[in-house]
Amino acid sequence: MKKTMKSQVRIMFIASSLVVLSGIVSCSKDDGLSPVGCNNWSEKYLSQAQAYSDASAAYSNDPSVSNCNKLKTEGLNYVKSLEGILSCVPTVNKSEFNNDIKNLKAEINSTACD
To answer: 59, 67 in Cβ contact below 8 A?
Structure first.
């Protein structure tokens, strides 16, 4: 249960950081210099963040093996979506963002569902 709360806090931190970054990027005029595929990049991870959050809540309410496996699957899908937008993260934030992704992935993979 404690691990799940930590995961939810990490999810919210990453998601809120990305929302702020998307606001910065989306407010600038399109000068053709942004990486390819980075228009509306927040949409690429928000649905996965919601699915992971929902799975985390379900697991908190019913810590069954099935819900745990769903939590891990949705968590790894969320990580994959974050990795997919890494090229859209400003260089100054990229290292910290990448470390957060690695830590989240390690935490998800270390969750035992038995």
So the answer is: yes
